[in-house]
């Protein structure tokens, strides 16, 4: 028998505690009742699971990237995502060293398991281990937030409401399926779950039961965790037998505006144009006829690379050049490779808001920056290079005070 909507509304009032701003709490309760519950019910989520998920949950206004009702649409000045900050910080000696040392130990400890996973999915064991280390410190990182608080708040107030609405509904499905009880569904501030830090929809798509116990347990099972990471990469196009990329010396004659996954060409042609590995060794024979891509995560202000399509598969896991670079480099280091040959230059002090304003100016000039979000992705970087060239400035493909002043 279907209960009356008025009963549901009154029940949510009891389940969600009062907030300092009654209008915020009332809006949140109304959103859950009128918008989320009907969709959740249509997906087979029971009222019992739904009520348990939101018992004691109130909107968390301390989360980043929220757009409060009535507030103007602006880009946040502060960048909360480490993956989009300075490369020298994200790929610090300390962070890499810890991941590499522990990673080598775990490669040995789980050698038989990893061999079976690599045989099934075609993804190298060091890559899998590096992602495990980066995402959750090999399962040791604290994952502090109530997933339904995070996803509910962001589905209602985030600038990316539809995305988080999808993830909230997926989290409710996970609970309904019995994969994880609602009372222990913890997440990152972005709503990512478990040791691989899968968003809920990715769990539903890519998590696997590799230990054969009938559950996809990315919270407690090492086999399920590692195999789920490998399955994710395989399903996103990992090319077995290929590297992720190579640190390279890229002469000024090869413009930084040629960067990006959409501008690939055979590595042999890059060699003809003067691109070489920093080690002085030739590119492997298995790679020379394959597609490569210029990749400059800090423009010409840091290390430069020829990336393979596998680099962009790593970015599919976490859409950050520095993240993919960390994973690939850590995996190489586990196998005995050295540190990068080129250091990171200190960039101009620009906030995320400053970069967003620069992006707006580039868009006004007709350039594609991939979105005015204050993050210098490859489309923004190469657009900067094109404008630098138009203004007679040296091509750096990186946000700078000099360019900001030139565009004022």
Automatic annotation (TrEMBL):
Matching InterPro entries: Lysozyme-like_dom_sf, MltB-like, MltB_2, PGBD-like_sf, SLT_2
Record's signal peptide: 1-20
One GO molecular-function entry: peptidoglycan lytic transglycosylase activity
The UniProt record lists the keyword Coiled coil: no
Pfam family, one: SLT_2
Annotated Transglycosylase SLT domain residues: 28-332
Keyword flag Signal: yes
An example Gene Ontology biological process: peptidoglycan catabolic process
The protein's name in its UniProt record: Probable transglycolase
Taxonomic lineage from the root: Bacteria, Pseudomonadati, Pseudomonadota, Alphaproteobacteria, Hyphomicrobiales
